[in-house]
Amino acid sequence: MTVAIHTLDDGAWISVNDARRVSVSDLWLLARHDVCACEVADFLAEAFVSVSVADGDIAAKIAGRCILCGEESVTDWVTVGRVVDGEFHGVVPESVHIPRLRHRKSAR
Ligand SMILES: [Zn+2]
Fold it and tell me: Which of 48, 81, 101, 106 has the most CB atoms around its CB within 10 Å?
């Protein structure tokens, strides 16, 4: 099944299959990241700069700021949700996320 994703409103939203699904302004807890020196960053999302989908796994690079230390940065790929049987399921931003250097390539 094809999953269509893109950003809207200068990166304020991620649209999945033509519905606004993920918005900025959430705090994302990031571990094993390189956005700042904090062990776990409390990262305020300000814009989604890139989005990618592979096998229903939707990931984004997020521009924002760690509210603990004030450092501004862009994350590596963070999974923001999954599409299973055509249904979007978002992750919980406040749980701990580990950004990855590469979004996994589609097996197809
Ligand atoms: Zn920090």
Answer: 48
Distance 67 CA to ligand 1 centre (A): 7
* Residues 63-92: tens digit of each pLDDT: 999 999 999 999 999 999 999 998 999 999
CA 28 / ligand 1 centre spacing (Å): 12
Cα of 58 from ligand 1 centre, angstroms: 25
Q: Show the CA angle centred on residue 23, arms to residues 26 and 50, nearest 5°.
A: 105
Output the CA 82–ligand 1 centroid distance in Å: 27
* Beta bridge pairs of residue 40: 31
Taking the chain (108 residues) in consecutive chunks of 10 residues, what is each chunk's mean pLDDT? 91 96 96 97 97 94 98 97 94 95 68
Cα(34) to centroid(ligand 1), Å? 9
